[in-house]
Design goal:
Number of strands: 0
Helix content: over 70%
Structural class: mainly alpha
Radius of gyration: 21 Å
Strand content: under 5%
Number of helices: 4
C-alpha cells in the first residue's frame, strides 16, 4: 500500500493493525502447538536434519561419489547428527523464542483487551 508522505499516521495505523492480526494468528496457532512440544520438535528436526544432510552432501559432491556421500556408514552418522542438531534448535531455542512471543502477546492482550 503506497500512501502520500503526509499520511504517515495512516500508514502507521495500518502497520499496527497488520501486526495485531499477525500476533493474533500466531497466538492461536501457538496455543495448539505448545501442548505438543516434543512432537512438534521431532517433526521439525526431521525436516531440518534431512535438508541439512542433503545440503552438506551437495557440497561434498566434487570430492566424493554420491554413494559415499549419502549411502555409507559416515553418511548415517552425519544424518543422525543433523537430525539431533535440528531437534536441539527446535526443542530449545525456537521453542523458547516462540513461547516468549506468545507470553508477550497474551500479556498485551490482557492489558489492552485486544
Amino acid at each position: 500500500m503506497v500512501l502520500p508522505l503526509g499520511n504517515k499516521k495512516v500508514l502507521w495505523e495500518h502497520q499496527k493493525t497488520e501486526q495485531m492480526k499477525n500476533d493474533r494468528k500466531f497466538a492461536e496457532s501457538w496455543e495448539k502447538k505448545r501442548t505438543r512440544r516434543w512432537q512438534t520438535a521431532f517433526y521439525f528436526s526431521l525436516i531440518y536434519g534431512i535438508l541439512l544432510f542433503a545440503l552438506i552432501g551437495a557440497f561434498d559432491m566434487n570430492d566424493q561419489e554420491m554413494k559415499q556421500i549419502y549411502f555409507s556408514k559416515h553418511a548415517l552418522i552425519r544424518l543422525i547428527a543433523c537430525v539431533a542438531a535440528g531437534y536441539f534448535v527446535s526443542a530449545f531455542w525456537m521453542w523458547r523464542m516462540n513461547e516468549e512471543r506468545y507470553k508477550r502477546i497474551k500479556k498485551a492482550k490482557e492489558n489492552k483487551g485486544i
